[in-house]
Amino acid sequence: MSEKRTEIGELGEFGLIDQLNSKIKIRHQETLKGIGDDAAVLDAGDKVKVITTDLLLEGVHFDLSYAPLHHLGFKAVAVNISDVAAMNAFPKQITVSIALSNRFSVEAVEALYAGINAAAEHYNVDVIGGDTTSSRSGLVISVTAIGEVEKGKEVYRSGAKVNDIICVTGDLGAALIGLQVLEREKEVFMADPNMKPQLDKYSYVTGRQLKPDARMDIIHELKELDVVPTAMMDVSDGLASELFHICKESNVGVMIYEDKLPIDKQTFDTAVEFNLDPITCVLNGGEDYELLFTISQDDFHKLEKHPDIHFIGHVTKADEGKFMVTKSETAVQLKAQGWVHF
Amino acid sequence: MSEKRTEIGELGEFGLIDQLNSKIKIRHQETLKGIGDDAAVLDAGDKVKVITTDLLLEGVHFDLSYAPLHHLGFKAVAVNISDVAAMNAFPKQITVSIALSNRFSVEAVEALYAGINAAAEHYNVDVIGGDTTSSRSGLVISVTAIGEVEKGKEVYRSGAKVNDIICVTGDLGAALIGLQVLEREKEVFMADPNMKPQLDKYSYVTGRQLKPDARMDIIHELKELDVVPTAMMDVSDGLASELFHICKESNVGVMIYEDKLPIDKQTFDTAVEFNLDPITCVLNGGEDYELLFTISQDDFHKLEKHPDIHFIGHVTKADEGKFMVTKSETAVQLKAQGWVHF
């Protein structure tokens, strides 16, 4: 028996996941897409069903010292709905499993579920199952979301074509800056529990961290405007990291423009206050849950005047690489940073 | 703001779950069944899809001091497949999310996934997604399974009719007894690490605890024999508890016979060794993952000679109650005990 011990850090989270995924076989033709996109895609007659799941742990993905349980319940659902949206699908059902210890009261659990139910109503989904169990330590939340879309209308990461226009919704970097503010106020509070947190002037960025909204509104609008993106994903790990995924899956390159990147004024100002480069926050901040997608130039006129869709660049050939043109008109190579959990 | 704090223990796990579920609304007609059966049922053209999920936590659902990671990976899948089987459906896909700390080596994670992949092969399912993340404490495994069956052939807990025959597969109580053995050997080992665990003569019962098999073989056979049970569920919480669920959902009573209850000899002998009543183990032992189902009397001849299906009683009217006729021909009222996690 081998006693070899390799630390996970030696491979990294992505290295470990790649190694595990390489051993997975697909056996059923109903499985149209397995691992490797925002959600799996299953054949269901004239429709496809999409399935996605997320596991959230206290102390890793959220901190109950500043995340209200109602918001946390909402967010746990929203992050999964965002993955359904990223497939151009419409969410229908979710399952929610919770593990909690007896440090939680019935009222606390009810607040968590009130957030879950508020999200179920907001996104028009049915809570169809789950598991409630005890935990010896922190709170664990596992959500699986199931969505549906007409067959052929589902959008993968792999469909971007040269000259397609790169679009992103909303603004970016706010959730990361919100987290910085919350962490700072927590430290202030830990040092002196009589200090009141100063959060009023940061309400937009903290809201983006604590209660993100999946962009189902955009998916409904794309349908009404008869636009099917060529590739799409949600911005959960950071814009640069997501662009790298699209480049890899679509075998293309990208050219984006710094002056086109959407950033909110409060995000910008707060980044400066924290001595952070706002553009780095936009490129590498995670958890914004906006949509990043590419469209054919033929569809540009349909979206051109949309107030919340920004055209940040275009798709190039793979061998042209991945670049950002800065405000001083220099092309700099993009780096994927994303989040590292281990 | 109310400062009321109600302890979860005041409501109990089932009370809490009932209270949370009472606030859930179903919005989509595609959701044929939400919470309340072994799996949810979704419309999918001429088929239905069934979805079930389980959340397993170290220290609550498993103990790594005696559960080998390979077996644990297999079991995490099998318990979900068992819920698919309980709907009379055929499993097609699973998602697997794992949270683990850096006390696990790459080799340990590979052993866990080898068990997951072995189960995926054994049950002929595709691993289509999941999440791998870090945990600050113990190992967490969340599996969601998706199955499929021709519309109208899915079996709920609610279909049992008066005079139907109650069937159970395999034998019961072994997993509970296996757990007793493993816990005892762990204590011996903790007291003196030089002691070798004495497990050889308990291999059947410990195997039933560590690596249960979902009874997909029975679902395939029922299909071949053209038998659709009137009601079905898997025995995860204990026979008595499951019978109570069927009685409640089908609005019926039951009469079962002690001398018909299947128990393996090693289970019986080991129960006696532990000063436990073997029949109590059969009635209230959890985690056997056998199938409990009811069939119309017209179908009895098709199953009559099956070596691994036992006919333990029949369905009565609800007002006739839930009884077991003992070997001494006394009718005693059944009590549901099941597992309490909080």
Automatic annotation (TrEMBL), chains A, B:
Residues the entry annotates as binding Mg(2+) 1: T53, D54, D131
Domain PurM-like C-terminal, first and last residues per copy: 214-324
Binding site for substrate: H61, E287, W339
InterPro entries in the cross-refs: PurM-like_C_dom (IPR010918), PurM-like_C_sf (IPR036676), PurM-like_N (IPR016188), PurM-like_N_sf (IPR036921), ThiL-like (IPR006283)
Signal peptide start-end: none
PurM-like N-terminal domain location: 36-149
Similarity section: Belongs to the thiamine-monophosphate kinase family.
Miscellaneous information on this protein: Reaction mechanism of ThiL seems to utilize a direct, inline transfer of the gamma-phosphate of ATP to TMP rather than a phosphorylated enzyme intermediate.
EC category: transferase
Name of the molecule in the record: Thiamine-monophosphate kinase
Residues holding Mg(2+) 2: D54, D83
Sorted UniProt keywords: ATP-binding, Kinase, Magnesium, Metal-binding, Nucleotide-binding, Thiamine biosynthesis, Transferase
Single GO MF annotation: thiamine-phosphate kinase activity
Pfam families in the record: AIRS, AIRS_C
Residues involved in Mg(2+) 5 binding: D237
